[in-house]
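Design a sequence for this backbone.
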């Protein structure tokens, strides 16, 4: 059994009562899949990358929590503790910890290793494309937000506010993600997903009679 498999099994135990549909085992599996795709062109240690992918959200705090920026550090610390107990190679603990620490957008920590760069890209890809749209609306609903401002969905005459309107999140944050990608493969994947996301928004505006915006 690989360290990725062992990490997945342990997280499944720790998340036995997890109810956040945007941060579930499916999310972790997709991040690990994206990591493997990116690593085909960006060599990295799978025994670091796999566990980092599965433990990166081990401590998952709500997006509106005042302690949100500490979640990646708490996840990294928990990963080290859990993997140490599982007999994980001590020499790999520091790069594993850094990869998890640096993946977070809110933590704003520059990734300094191949594994950290790949994990950051893989996790950010989850905010884009079809899966990004699904997660965007789900998270907004969890926080009490609406789908969009029916009168001004593109915020032409009001401030953007993605806490109130899910659709605003595309302009508030997601359009900038492509430029933050650390790898060439990740950047290409992000650009394609953002294009799809913007085409979805165009279709949505047409369906609600706002296509002239």
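Sequence:
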């Amino acid at each position: 059994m690989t360290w990725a498999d062992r990490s997945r099994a342990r997280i499944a135990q720790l998340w036995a009562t997890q109810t956040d549909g945007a941060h579930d085992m499916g999310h972790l599996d997709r991040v690990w899949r994206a990591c493997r795709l990116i690593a085909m062109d960006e060599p990295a240690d799978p025994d670091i990358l796999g566990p980092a992918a599965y433990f990166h959200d081990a401590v998952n705090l709500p997006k509106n929590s005042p302690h949100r920026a500490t979640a990646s550090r708490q996840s990294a610390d928990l990963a080290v503790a859990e993997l140490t107990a599982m007999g994980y190679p001590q020499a790999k603990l520091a790069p594993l910890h850094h990869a998890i620490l640096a993946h977070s957008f809110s933590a704003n920590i520059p990734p300094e290793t191949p594994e950290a760069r790949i994990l950051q890209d893989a996790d950010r890809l989850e905010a884009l494309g079809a899966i990004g749209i699904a997660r965007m609306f789900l998270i907004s609903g969890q926080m009490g937000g609406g789908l969009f401002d029916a009168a001004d969905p593109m915020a032409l005459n009001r401030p953007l506010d993605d806490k109130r309107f899910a659709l605003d999140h595309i302009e508030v944050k997601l359009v900038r993600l492509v430029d933050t990608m650390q790898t060439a493969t990740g950047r290409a994947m992000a650009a394609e997903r953002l294009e799809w996301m913007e085409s979805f928004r165009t279709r949505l505006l047409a369906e609600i009679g706002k296509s002239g915006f």
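The domain at 127-213 is CATH 1.20.58.1910 (Methane Monooxygenase Hydroxylase; Chain G, domain 1).
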